[in-house]
UniProtKB/TrEMBL annotation, chains A, B:
It catalyses: 5-phospho-alpha-D-ribose 1-diphosphate + nicotinate + ATP + H2O = nicotinate beta-D-ribonucleotide + ADP + phosphate + diphosphate. NCBIfam families: PRK05321.1 (NF003704). Its EC number is 6.3.4.21. It comes from Lichenibacterium minor. HAMAP family: NAPRTase. This is Nicotinate phosphoribosyltransferase. Signal peptide: none annotated. Keywords: Glycosyltransferase, Ligase, Phosphoprotein, Pyridine nucleotide biosynthesis, Transferase.
Length: 434, 434
C-alpha cells in the first residue's frame, strides 16, 4: 500500500504561509523579565524600536520580499499567549524561584498582542520601526529579528533541490555535533543557547537545542528561548538588556542624572528580582566608566555579563574591580555572551578556570553557522549583524556607547554628549561579525 | 490538528520484520547476465556457494542473531520477480542493446524463487551454504551478503537514540558529499556504484546512488544494482565474475583443460554478449598467467577489469599486453573495481589519464563508509570482507588464486595444484580491507 497522507498532501498544496513565529513565547526570556518591570514602572513611556543592519554590505531588502515580510509580521500580530503557556508562566519556577511573574502582570499579558509596525524600503534596507508605549512595543524585538533572519535563510535556500537541502542540513548537523564534542573537553562548562534572534530558522534552533541537551548533559544549562524551554523542560535563561539603561539614559534630565542612570536601572531591577537574576550588564555606556562610578552595592550582585569587550580583558577588568571592592571573584559569576564560538569558549574557559564562576550564552555560531554547508558559496546563509534597538524615547534620541565603538548606536551629536559624560575609557574597536 | 497517521503508527507497532531484500532485482546486474548464460549452458551443474568471512577477527555470529538472519533469508525466499520488473527486464536496453534477455530465459525467471539454504554457527561465524543446480543457487550470493551486512549495521546501531542516529546519518551524508565534491575535480571521470553487497543498508545505498546522480551528473554512469537502476532510470552495469572460470576450472578434466578454462569462459560469454559487455576479468587464476597464455582474439575485447592487483601496476601490465598485441590502449577500457576510495580513484585517474579509457566501479567505500560517524567508536559499523563464493562443483573443490594471495580461495591442496598449472607470476600479497 502506498501510504501518502492525502489530507496532508492537499493541505501542503494549499499553504498560504509557513509561519516563522508561532508563539509569543518564541522570544528571549529576558524580554519577559524586563517586560514585567516596564509594565510596573514605565508602561506608558513612548519609545521607538528600529531595525538596524550593521552589515551594510548585505542589502536585506533585495534578498527578501517585502510582501513576505509583511505576511510574517502580520501573522506574528495575530498571536496571543495560549492558555497552556499562561499556565506554564504562572506555574513554572525560574532561576529556582516560583511565582516570578505577578498575577496582575500575567493578566495583562493574557490579552497582549504585538502592535502595528512601520515598514519601508530604502536603499536596499528595510526601515522597520515599532512606535508606541514601551510595554507594547518591546516584545517586537526578537520576533522581528527572527523573522527577517529566517526569511533570509529561506531566500538563500530557494532553488536548491530536495537532495541538496538534505546535504546542507546533514553538513550543518555534522558541524554542530563536532563543536559539541569539542565542548565536552571542558569539564565544568556551563553553556546555554542564546541564539533565538540570529537563528537560521526556528526548526534549526530546536535541533541545536536538542543537540546540546543530548550531547552536553548537565553542562547545558538551558535556553533563552521561552518556548523551547517550556517544550523541552529546560531552564529559561536571561536577565536584562541594554534597552533599560538606554531608556533611562534618554529620560535623564541632566548630565548628573545621566551618569546615575545605569545604577538606577539596577535599583529598579533589584525591586523585582534577586539571586541569580542579579546580573549586571555593564557596557551600555562603557564598562570602564560603569565600574569607575559604580556604588559599592553593585559588587554584591551575583555577576556581570560583559557583552561587547573581548572576553579575556573584559573579564579581567571586572575581576580586578571585584577584588578592589573586597569581593572574592570565585564567588562571582561572569556570563559571556558576545560573538562566541568553540575556540573563544575554550580559550576563555581555560583562561579563567578556577578563578571565577563562568557561564556562556552561545548565540549566532550555535544557531546559524552554515559556513561551508551549501553546495556552492551562499552569502545569503551567512548571518548578519542585525539588531532591533531603542532609537527614540518620547522624542529624545536613545544612545548606546558599548565597549566596542562599532556597536555604538544613536544620533552622532548625542553619542558625543554621552561620551563627554561617561568618557571613552576602555573602548576598543573590533569588527562586528554577528 | 495533530497529524499523526494512526494507521501507520499502529502498523509500525505490529511490524514483525523490516525486510532487507524486498525484490529479486535488488542484486548485481552481472548476476543476471551470468544467470542467462548458466541457464543456457550449465543449468543442471551442481554447485555449492559458501559464505566466507575474510575478516576473521569479527565474529559475525556474535554480532547478529541467528533467528533474525533466518527470518531475513526466509523472507528473501518468498520473493518472485514482479510483473513490472519482468516487463522492465524485457523492455529495457542494457549497454545500448535491446532484448538482451531471451524470452525463454525470462519465462524461466518469472517462476524463480531462491532455494533453501544451510545455516549453522561455528566458532562465532555463520556457516551459510547454498547447494543445488548452479542456475538455482547463484542468485543467493548478493542478497545473502546484503542481508548479513545490513543486520550487522542494525546491530551496531541498536541502543542509539533517535538523536544520535540523526547525527550518524548526517555525518555519513556530509562525508559522502565531500567525496563527491573531490571527484568533481576529475573532468572525464566515469564512475558507477558497485556497492550492493557490502552496503550499510538498502536505504543508505539508495541515498548514495542519488547523491552520485545529483552530484556527478554524466560522470556517474550507473549502478550495478538492478532495482536501483530501474527505479532511478540509471544504466544497470556489470559483466561477469569469478564464478564462471572457477566452475569451468573445477570441471576441467586435466591440466591442459584447466589452463584453457579461462578462455573457454570468454568464448561462452561471446556467444551471449557483445560490445561493451566484452570485459575480461583476468585475475581468477592470476592476471600474469592469463595474459601470458591468452589467445590473440582476447585483445579484440573492449576492456579488462583488473580486480585484485593494485590498480596502477595492474593496469600497466594490461596496457603493455595490449601494445604487445598491436592494439592502441586509447581504444580500450580499464574497469577498476577493487577497494576503491577517492584517493585511489584520483591517483589511478591521473596516472592513466589520456592513455586508456577508464571507468571506476566504486563499492564498499561508497555504500558503507561510516568511519568516524558514530558517537563512540563502533566496530560493528566497519565493513568486513565478507564474500559468498563457489566452493564446490559437483564434488570437485573450486579454486580462486587471485593476484592477491590474501584473496585466494579453495582447499589448500587444490590451490597448490592450480599454482602448478598457472604459476604464481605477478602475485603480490596486500591486506584485504573490504
Amino acid at each position: 500500500m502506498t501510504t501518502t497522507d492525502l489530507a496532508k498532501r492537499v493541505y501542503d498544496h494549499t499553504w498560504k504561509l509557513d509561519p516563522i513565529v508561532r508563539s509569543l513565547l518564541d522570544t528571549d526570556f529576558y524580554k519577559l523579565l524586563m517586560l514585567q518591570m516596564i509594565w510596573g514602572l514605565y508602561r506608558d513611556q513612548p519609545v521607538t524600536f528600529s531595525l538596524v543592519n550593521r552589515t551594510h554590505a548585505v542589502r536585506v531588502a533585495d534578498e527578501i520580499d517585502e510582501a513576505e515580510l509583511r505576511d510574517q509580521l502580520d501573522h506574528a500580530r495575530s498571536l496571543t499567549v495560549s492558555k497552556k503557556e499562561m499556565i506554564w508562566l504562572a506555574g513554572n519556577s525560574f532561576y529556582g524561584r516560583a511565582h516570578i511573574f505577578d498575577p496582575a502582570f500575567l493578566g495583562w499579558l493574557a490579552d497582549y498582542r504585538l502592535p502595528d509596525y512601520d515598514l519601508a524600503v530604502r536603499d536596499g534596507q528595510f526601515e522597520l520601526t515599532f512606535s508606541g508605549s514601551w510595554v507594547d512595543v518591546t516584545l517586537w524585538e526578537i520576533p522581528a529579528l527572527a523573522i527577517i533572519n529566517e526569511l533570509r535563510s529561506r531566500a538563500a535556500l530557494k532553488g536548491l533541490g530536495r537532495f541538496q537541502l538534505d546535504v546542507v542540513y546533514a553538513r550543518a548537523k555534522a558541524k554542530l555535533w563536532s563543536k559539541v564534542e569539542r565542548l565536552r573537553g571542558l569539564p565544568d562548562l556551563r553553556i546555554s543557547d542564546f541564539g533565538t534572534r540570529r537563528r537560521h530558522s526556528f526548526l534549526w534552533q530546536r535541533w541545536c537545542v536538542e543537540a546540546l541537551k543530548e550531547g552536553l548533559d548537565d553542562a547545558f544549562t538551558g535556553t533563552s528561548n521561552v518556548l523551547l524551554a517550556m517544550d523541552n523542560d529546560l531552564e529559561a535563561l536571561g536577565t536584562n538588556a541594554h534597552e533599560l539603561p538606554m531608556v533611562l539614559g534618554a529620560l535623564a534630565k541632566d548630565e548628573a542624572a545621566l551618569r546615575r542612570a545605569p545604577y538606577g536601572v539596577l535599583a529598579d531591577w533589584r525591586k523585582y528580582y534577586g539571586g541569580n537574576l542579579l546580573i549586571v550588564l555593564p557596557d551600555t555606556f562603557g564598562t570602564a566608566p560603569f565600574l569607575r562610578d559604580a556604588p559599592d552595592w553593585v559588587a554584591d550582585w551575583t555577576g556581570f555579563r560583559p557583552d561587547s569587550a573581548p572576553p579575556i580583558p573584559g573579564g579581567e577588568a571586572i575581576i580586578a574591580w571585584w577584588r578592589a571592592k573586597g569581593r572574592d571573584p570565585r564567588d562571582k559569576l561572569l556570563v559571556f555572551s558576545d560573538a562566541l564560538d568553540v575556540a573563544t569558549i575554550e580559550e576563555t574557559y581555560r583562561h579563567f578556570e578556577g578563578r571565577v564562576r563562568m557561564s556562556f550564552g552561545w548565540g549566532t555560531n550555535l544557531t546559524n553557522d552554515f559556513a561551508g554547508c551549501a553546495p556552492t558559496p551562499n552569502g545569503g546563509l551567512k548571518a548578519i549583524s542585525l539588531v532591533c534597538k531603542i532609537t527614540d524615547v518620547g522624542g529624545q534620541p536613545a544612545v548606546k556607547l558599548s565597549d566596542n565603538p562599532e556597536k555604538a548606536l544613536g544620533r552622532p551629536d548625542e553619542v558625543e554628549r554621552y561620551l563627554r559624560v561617561f568618557g571613552a575609557a576602555g573602548r576598543v574597536a573590533q569588527p562586528v561579525l554577528v
